[in-house]
Amino acid sequence: MSPSVPLQEMIRAIRSARTQCEERGVIQRECAAIRAQFRQVDNGARSHNLAKLLYVHMLGYPAHFGQMECVRMIASPRYSEKRVGYLGAMMLLDEKQDASLLITNSIKNDLSHSNQYVQSLALCTLACMGSAEMCRDLAPEIDRLLRASNSYIKKKAALCAVHIVRKVQDLGELFAPAARSLLSEKNHGVLHGAVVLITELCERNPETLERFRKTVPDLVQIMKGLVISGYSPEHDVAGISDPFLQVRILRLLRILGRNNEAASDAMNDLLAQVATNTDSTKTVGNAVLYETVLTVLDIKSESGLRVLAVNILGRFLLNNDRNIRYIAMTSLQRIVGTDHNAVQRHRGTIVDCLKDQDASVKRRALELSLALVSASNIRSMMKELLLFLSSCPPELRAQAASGIFYAAESTCAWGDVRDETVPNLIQLITNASELHCYTVHKLYRALLNDISQQSLVQVACWCIGEYGDLLLRGECQETEPAQVTEDDVLDALETVLQSHMSSPATRGFALTATMKLSTRILDNVDRIRSIVSIYGSCIDVELQQRAVEYNALFRKYDHMRAAVLERMPVIEKNSPGHTNGESAGEPMKEIQPPKVKQGEPLLPQQPANQKDGVTLTLSCEKQSDSVLTVTLTASNSTDSDMSSFTLQAAVPKSVQLHMKAPSGDFLPARGAAKVTQMVVLNNPNKVGPQTQSYDALSYDEHQSDTVQIDSFPGLSAAGH
């Protein structure tokens, strides 16, 4: 192939190559010829060579050696060379290339050229690859061209100004006055560029947005002219007058009307007119309607207009084009939370989309169907969703199943919630300290209205017991002021205690809440004591035990009542697999007894004392050569109960003693239960052969006994 072949012949040769290797050979030979001709000072085929190089670049082959040729051709006085040079600069150069700085002066000169097409080339190049430095240098020239009389130049300058604003946001203020004046133009190209520029300015600067809200009437008039105008061959697209400009104006109106009632009111009539007069049988009409719907839903529009917008989306759901159905469901998904009833009218059409063959449409229909489930339609919706679950694709099965379970739980659970729901909600309330006052007021009112929902009643009782003082103050700013007295609160808790609908667990919550209020109120402590004492003879063992313990707190430990019943600290949620009172952390390890070595035999249990019906036995368990765990067990074989039972121990100084907490201080009659206490003895120096210990027993306030134990098997052996 000759080096001087024209572009068409080079393209034909490349396409006729049978292998990639042959194609590379053709391109390498042609690039070598182009490079050689670039070195010639005066070559009439410069534009043809650069055009061929640009085609090579489009195929993905390196063409960087043509960058400087682009710079030289841009500076050429010939329009044919300048045009190809600017095209090459837009394709081969970017703002990161040093060569791009070399064309700044040429662009500035061409922006002042007498030929509008040369000006157009410079504007297009600056809008395509202008760096921040170039934009700062040339911004005054662009502002000058925005005020020119030539419409062809003004529309190009407006789009170039958009690029400058994106690169250097501070320059937006420079173009704002000229952009507003462009809205008075009649040329659609200039109007389109002006709307795009104003949109960019409003999105990037809130102050500019407020300033351009004054242009809403002008934009409304322009849009009305497009909607009601007759047939115009120059702008008509499938029966719609300039749909591209209409879409741009609607987007700008959406930005200007967002969170502003005055601007929204000014465009409500226009949006209703566009929504009713636009033909929805063509794609361009659907595009305009879709932008209209988005604008209606995003501004502070009238309720009737929002219903009209939802109905348009409902018509989109019936369209044969899957793309239109998809965007309709996407838009409905966004508004289902605020316009739930309006979306519900199209529930049948949405459910039918579950049968669509397209996976994306199915997924969006599933999400929207689950969002539409309510207490009134759950039966019919569950039938459709279960039918879909039986035949849905594997990738949607997990989402469908979990959505069905969640809908059933959130819609039909009522009081039948899982056991962990109550403590989980209590934990959330405890952690949100700033909402304690608001929460206790709301739950108190819910308790007065309905006590049939047991889980809610339990949470309400817990909150009243914990934060009853906040309820009585009546200082909650989030709720309406209401005067709640101590008697009102106690009446509500008594209602729960006496109701036949209350479960034993709920009564336990209410009784504990009543007891906790004894430290949060001042004038009704005697009434609380009376309520608690009544349940000391309750048939329910758990409730009876609580009441007896609370009565004992009043009688014997009244000085400790305020500390025992103080406000609960922040509740740490247990890790999965741990029961109440257990933790996955290290602190539990500190209070656990040392582990027995594998294979170490337990020493036999031996009686230590037997007197006045009280039997004390001990069992020793060897942990190591110097550590022994002794378990003391006391039982009562008499016919009367023993209270205030304590065990004490003393050992020589050579032995370290650590006593664990006892299992209780009450010994029931006839050996019904035992009191156990664990003692850890450590003989670090292995002193032997005997270790004396003195165990003291006291019970029933005035009775006591002392037992001496001369040796502990296993511990004394360690001393040998």
Automatic annotation (TrEMBL):
Protein name per UniProt: AP-1 complex subunit gamma
Domain GAE: start-end pairs: 601-716
Alphabetical list of Pfam families matching this protein: Adaptin_N, Alpha_adaptinC2
Classification via PANTHER family: ADAPTIN, ALPHA/GAMMA/EPSILON
Family that this chain belongs to: Belongs to the adaptor complexes large subunit family.
Annotated Polar residues bias: 684-695
Superkingdom as given in the UniProt entry: Eukaryota
Membrane topology according to the record: Peripheral membrane protein
Organism this protein belongs to: Lates calcarifer (Barramundi)
Lipoprotein found in the keyword field: no
Disordered: annotated segments: 572-612, 684-720
Subcellular location: Cytoplasmic vesicle membrane; Endomembrane system; Golgi apparatus
Gene3D superfamilies: 2.60.40.1230, Leucine-rich Repeat Variant (1.25.10.10)
GO BP, sorted A to Z: intracellular protein transport; vesicle-mediated transport
InterPro entries per record: Adaptor_Complx_Large_Subunit, AP1_complex_gsu, ARM-like, ARM-type_fold, Clathrin/coatomer_adapt-like_N, Clathrin_a/b/g-adaptin_app_Ig, Clathrin_app_Ig-like_sf, GAE_dom
Listed GO CC annotations: AP-1 adaptor complex
Entry keyword annotation includes Protein transport: yes
Keywords from the UniProt entry: Cytoplasmic vesicle, Golgi apparatus, Membrane, Protein transport, Transport
